């Protein structure tokens, strides 16, 4: 009886209930894992020590990624048998590689070279065994289909870029987690539109795992960070969502997102990529240093210097990213090069507007002070 039910069961026939169950499982596991993480972190003194670059002044547990990982493991284990099992098991394998690397880095510190190799291995597992890769540029710059070897290399580049971009923005309370929550909500919408229930399930489960974390990440007492464990897993998941979305849209030209898939994907991860390229440019061109040299030139540091709180900084950045995604949806029927130009232009303007506004205010204040000094 049970076997027959499982054989003919299709989650798409009960999609709302299915996604609610996935969300609640992840939420429950994540919520109930954090007390143990706090107890172990405090007892074993597994804390993040404030440094010269830190925007925090107190020692804080940094193992929040464990709860996120455990939530996803439980969802994949319990619900994965009724989904695309092969893809989910390989996804879980890649996540496990990054989980243990991130955990070691949070506890003992891991060399960048070993983290980089681990990221390549986790990505290659999915690229090779599922053949999920970026097969073309959708006509951007006149390029449609890529040679296999270049397709694999470019897909690896996208994985490494997004994973490390999310790691780099994890410097303000709630920023990495909130952007990841928004990205998962956006991908849930997209995957439901394309009827990719397996990816929609994982995206919703990730939302469920992030909500208890964000509650604690924003808290003043019993605060916790996701650490490299969490940021690498989240970055890996989102990079897989991007690659999966682009791969499926390229293969099935009847997809409603065929003409806009790369623009929508870019809109979803716009801020992490913008901040990464901006910081690398500043470090290489202006400071003549390695692009991986740590500093306080990130956009979120700029918001803090303007007097914004952590919550205000996170809220402002996430709202702008949501606006960009909505605009990308509205532009999805435009010619693809026009979509790209609009997204890059509007995105850059929106993120620059905050700083320009404060610069104008400061200029007016200085002019007013000088005028008063002259009169006196």
From TrEMBL:
Binding residue positions for Mg(2+): 167, 228
Residues that span the membrane, as ranges: 15-42, 63-81, 87-104, 116-142, 148-168, 175-192, 198-218, 225-243, 263-286, 307-330, 336-361
Needed co-factor(s): Mg(2+)
Record keywords: Cell membrane, Magnesium, Membrane, Metal-binding, Transferase, Transmembrane, Transmembrane helix
Keyword ATP-binding (UniProt): no
GO molecular function, one term: metal ion binding
Gene Ontology cellular-component terms listed: plasma membrane
Source organism: Gelidibacter gilvus
Record localization: Cell membrane
UniProt cross-references to InterPro entries, sorted A to Z: Glycosyl_transferase_4, PNAcMuramoyl-5peptid_Trfase_CS
Transferase listed as a keyword: yes
Membrane topology type: Multi-pass membrane protein
Protein name: Undecaprenyl/decaprenyl-phosphate alpha-N-acetylglucosaminyl 1-phosphate transferase
Pfam families reported in the protein's UniProt record: Glycos_transf_4
A GO BP annotation: cell wall macromolecule biosynthetic process
